[in-house]
Specification:
This is Glutathione ABC transporter permease GsiC. Pfam families: BPD_transp_1, BPD_transp_1_N. The chain has helices at residues 3-30, 35-40, 49-59, 65-77, 91-126, 131-145, 148-162, 178-212, 215-222, 227-264, 271-279, 283-311. By secondary structure, the chain is mostly helical. The protein has a domain at 94-280: Orthogonal Bundle (MetI-like fold), CATH 1.10.3720.
Length: 318
Amino acid sequence: MSAIWFAHRILIALVLAWIVATIVFMALHMVPGDPAELLLSTGGTSPDPATVAELREKLGLNQPILVQYGSFLAGLLRADLGNSLVDDYPVLSEIALRLPRTLELIFAGTLLAIAIGVPAGVYAALHRGGRFDRIASGVTALLLAIPVFVVGTLLVLLFAQTLRLMPAGGFTPLTQDPVLHLKLLTLPAIAIGKGLAAVLFRMTRASMLDALANDYVRTARAKGLAPGRVLFVHVLRNALNPVVTVLGLQMGTLLGGTVLVEYVFNWPGLSTPLLRAVEARDYPMVVGIVLTISVLFLLINLIVELIHALLDPRVSAP
């Protein structure tokens, strides 16, 4: 792997993170409404203009937009996202508390999707046109068509309300009760991983069929190599490249899908403070959470590019 290629990818990720931060900051400040006035409004009554002006000065909202933007960038360089306008709680502390829960949900759903989608796709490709291939293709089409919040609701009705095998929702720390924690994690992970499992199945199946049709596979078989060696060394390794790429992109989209899943299952991740912050025009909290999600998306794609380069050294060749 070329060091220049790696440095170039890091630089691109940093530039994209800055662009995203700028867009989010500017977009929020273009939304109509005065955060100070919204914070002071109670019961539908208009607050005192003097009080609003005092709060705007305290929050720095009376400064020119470029000055606020400069202060915002300086805070990012210091790893300081500011305080929430609602409760004056540090944004970074709130994110540090809730981000591990969202990441746990995403990775649990991803692992579940990989464990189901990839082996099923390989088996379907090796038995193309068979009963399993036809049934699995139909099931994946159905899974892709059903929205994630509908799946979540159905899972709650079936496993929590009807069969009473799983709790309906909530959160318990792993250190407090590992068994209950895993039970509470299972249904949200299934809900968020169902679409990814369907995508991985289709991509793995298509990549395997394409790899199986290549000349080097026929040559390997003609040489008398064991079927397992042909499958794992010559077919699966080459078929995994597009699968890994799609996996990285889909993991990024899961960051957005967790909002609905966390809401349905009452999972205390980033969705709750994000929705509350958008409603209250809490600029620091919205920018901090959106920027965190964006950076995670860029990081995931960077990791995918590194794995892709390891699987295919031509990608990082100068």
